[in-house]
Amino acid sequence: MRSVVVKTLFAGMLATGLSACETMNMPDLTMPDFSMPDVFTSTPAQTVTLDEGYQFTLPEQPWTDDDAIDVTQQVTAGWKNGSSTETGTFQARLSLERDHVRIVMIDDLGRRAIDIDWTTDALSVQTADWLPATLDAKRMLADIIMVYWPLDVVRDALPGNMSIRETMGERMLRMDDSGRAYARIERPIRDVWQGVAKLRNERFGYAITIRSQRTGS
After folding, report:
1. Over 128-152, what HEC string results?
2. Whole-angstrom distance, CA of residue 196 vs CA of residue 74
3. Secondary structure class of 139 (helix, strand, coil)
4. Closest CA relative to residue 209, chosen from 15, 48, 18, 79
5. Burial class (CB in 10 A: 0-12, 13-18, 19+), 106
6. What count of Cα atoms within 13 Å lies in the side-chain half-sphere of residue 188?
7. What pTM was estimated for this model as a whole?
8. So what's the pLDDT on residue 68?
9. Which among 44, 110, 156, 174 would be 20 to 30 A from 35, CA to CA?
C-alpha cells in the first residue's frame, strides 16, 4: 500500500526529470490549445482516498472567500524509493475566486501537465497524455487543501476517524483509530500564500516543500 500511494503521488510528474528553476514562471490559466484527456468531470462531493478506510471529501464550495487569490508556486518533493531518496520539482499557478478554483501545473519545459477547473457545479481535471495513469491529481488537490484552506474547511473534509489540530504556523493531522500522526504541516504565519509551506506525510514518508509568491488579482 505504501509504495502504491507514493508512486501515485510522484512517479509520473516527478520521476520524469523535472529540474529546479531559479525563478517561478507564470503558468497560463487559459485552456490549452492541445488535447488533454479528461480524467473526470462530475458533480461535487468528490472523495479522495488518503489510506485504506480514510476518505477525504472535497468541499462542495471550492473557495468561499470574497478576496481573490492568485499565486505561483515552486514545489519540491522528496520520497523514498527503496534504499534511496528521490526528489523532483514542478511549478504551479493557483487562482482562487469565490466558488471557483483553477490550478495549472507545468514541467521544466513549460509543458502543461495538469489542469484543474473546480466550481460548485463540477470538478474537471485534465492531464497531459505523456503523464502515466498512476498520477492521482485528486490526491494532489487534497494535499493543497490540507495546507492552505481554512481550518474549519479541512476539518469538515476529513473522515470521522481523523482529526486536525492547529497551532501557530503548524497543523497536525492524526488517524484517530490508531493514534498515529498522518501528516505534519508548517505554514507561513503572517500570510499563508506568501513564503514557504511544508507538508510531511508521516504515514507514507513523503515530504513536499511549497514556495508561494503572490502575483496579484
Report:
1. CCCCCCCCCHHHHHHHHHHHHCCHH
2. 10
3. helix
4. 79
5. buried
6. 14
7. 0.82
8. 94
9. 44
195 DSSP β-pair partners: 212
| Count of CA atoms in the C-beta half-sphere (13 A) of 147 | 28
Torsion angle of the four alpha carbons 126, 57, 210, 148, in this order, in degrees rounded to the nearest 10: 120
Between 154 and 14, the higher pLDDT residue: 154
Beta bridge partners of 200: 184, 207
pLDDT value at position 20?
A: 35
**Residue 199: strand pairing partners:** 185, 208
Amino acid residing at 41: T
Output the nine-digit C-alpha cell for 203: 504515514
pLDDT tens digits, 93-107: 999 999 999 999 998
Cα-Cα-Cα-Cα dihedral sign, residues 200, 185, 163, 53? negative
Handedness of CA 36, 18, 169, 189 (dihedral sign): negative
Closest CA to 118 of 135, 143, 98: 98
Cβ(38)–Cβ(142) below 8 Å: no
Tell me which of 76 and 28 has the higher pLDDT. 76
Tell me what the pLDDT averaged over the chain comes to: 82
Instruction: Take residue 42 and report the three cell numbers written for it.
Output: 462530475
